[in-house]
UniProtKB/TrEMBL annotation:
Keyword line: Oxidoreductase, Signal
Family statement drawn from the similarity comment of this UniProt entry: Belongs to the short-chain dehydrogenases/reductases (SDR) family.
Ketoreductase domain: residues covered: 71-267
InterPro entries cross-referenced by the UniProt entry: KR_dom, NAD(P)-bd_dom_sf, Sc_DH/Rdtase_CS, SDR_fam
A molecular-function term among this protein's GO annotations: oxidoreductase activity
Pfam families linked to this entry: adh_short
PANTHER family listed in its UniProt record: DEHYDROGENASE/REDUCTASE SDR FAMILY MEMBER 7B (PTHR44196), DEHYDROGENASE_REDUCTASE SDR FAMILY MEMBER 7B (PTHR44196:SF1)
Species assigned in the record: Ditylum brightwellii
Protein's name in the database: Ketoreductase domain-containing protein
Function as written in the Swiss-Prot or TrEMBL entry: Putative oxidoreductase.
Cleaved signal peptide residues: 1-21
Protein's UniProt keywords contain Signal: yes
One CC-aspect GO term: membrane
Length: 348
């Protein structure tokens, strides 16, 4: 390794150490650690609590409650781990109408019931929250269109104030083992469905002069990981789309936010699909050791309410290092990714 490469690695390690070493006085809150902006190729890295032993410890800031209170919110992927955690937080804030969407009707009902049991417990009192559930398969265009139409009907006065595109699916096969149909499915679920909902709901926000689109992407939308070609492509599409959309809406009063989490302790890897369309059906070690979904939910909502446009929610050193390496030492990052893929092949 050259002296220059070694120096870059040392610099990256120092920067990541400095942005990870701070421990907030209140461990249930995150602390925003601002690195250079996304326009310079780097994103703000958001620190979360490492103590995630109980859900009760994860709560949004009061300013976040104020930002969301009384607003009509559509949340996709609400029956999953991260979506369910966000739904609980939103119900505690006193949002106006909370629309929960997902494929599993029974799971949605469970999340809805829990949300309803919490409404009013935050002391807001002024704005009782209405919770609605809409079953939707993001892989089907007509189902997505129906979700947008039904959401507008549920809201008074006919506007969705906040769209949270959280629903998604992952993949677990190499490029050569992945069919074009799986590529298209990943793009439809992770990108086109959210873009369609934005097309349906953002015009109302623009008309009102206020609103937000919060898109849950991934660190893999910033760094392409082997055996995730379809997934990475769909998440890179989200990043580029939102950067352009944010510029177009800058003077409209509508804000666009992209959250890029690292690994989260949910069932995402179990529900991931292989290159032939079959279920992966396994809990990956990286996922099992990932961040707590409640902490991630709080961080996403707080960061969006604080006006952060693009931000990384990563609990691991490797996720942060990969982002810095892509900018400062891309050749070295590529060698690391090749090594990772070779190891995967030898273990399969």
């Amino acid at each position: 390794m050259s002296c220059i490469s070694l120096s870059l690695l040392v610099l990256i390690a120092v920067v990541i150490h400095c942005t990870s070493a701070f421990v907030p006085s209140n461990p249930t809150k995150y602390s925003s650690l601002h690195t250079p902006s996304a326009s310079n190729g780097l994103l703000p890295v958001t620190k979360m609590s490492t103590d995630s032993s109980s859900f009760d410890g994860a709560e949004v800031k009061e300013t976040t409650r104020d930002r969301f209170r009384g607003r009509n919110v559509l949340l996709t992927g609400a029956s999953g781990g991260l979506g369910g955690a966000m739904a609980i937080q939103l119900s505690r804030m006193g949002v106006g109408t909370l629309i929960l969407s997902g494929r599993d009707q029974d799971a949605l009902k469970e999340v809805s019931d829990e949300c309803l049991s919490l409404i009013g417990n935050d002391g807001a009192g002024e704005c009782p929250t209405k919770v609605e559930i809409i079953k939707c398969d993001l892989s089907e265009t007509e189902s997505v269109r129906s979700l947008g139409e039904e959401s507008l009907k549920f809201c008074s006065p006919g506007f969705v104030d906040v769209l949270i595109n959280n629903g998604g699916i992952s993949s677990r096969s190499s490029f050569l083992e992945t069919t074009p149909e799986v590529d298209e499915l990943l793009m439809q679920v992770n990108f086109f469905s959210g873009a369609r909902l934005a097309k349906m709901l953002v015009p109302g926000m623009v008309e009102k002069g206020d609103g937000s689109v919060i898109w849950v992407s991934s660190v893999q939308g910033l760094v392409g990981i082997p055996s995730r070609t379809s997934y990475a492509a769909s998440k890179f599409a989200v990043q580029g789309y939102c950067e352009a959309l944010r510029a177009e809406l800058a003077s409209s009063g509508v804000t666009v936010h992209v959250a890029s989490p690292g690994y989260i302790r949910t069932n995402l890897s179990k529900s991931a699909i292989r290159g032939d369309g079959s279920k992966h059906g396994q809990m990956d070690e990286t996922t099992a050791n990932g961040a707590d979904p409640n902490d991630v939910a709080v961080t996403i909502l707080d960061s969006s309410a604080d006006g952060m446009a693009d931000f990384v929610v990563a609990s691991s050193f490797s996720a942060k290092a990969a982002i810095w390496l892509r900018l400062l030492a891309p050749s070295f990052l590529n060698k690391m990714l090749v090594k990772r893929f070779d190891k995967e092949k030898s273990n399969s």
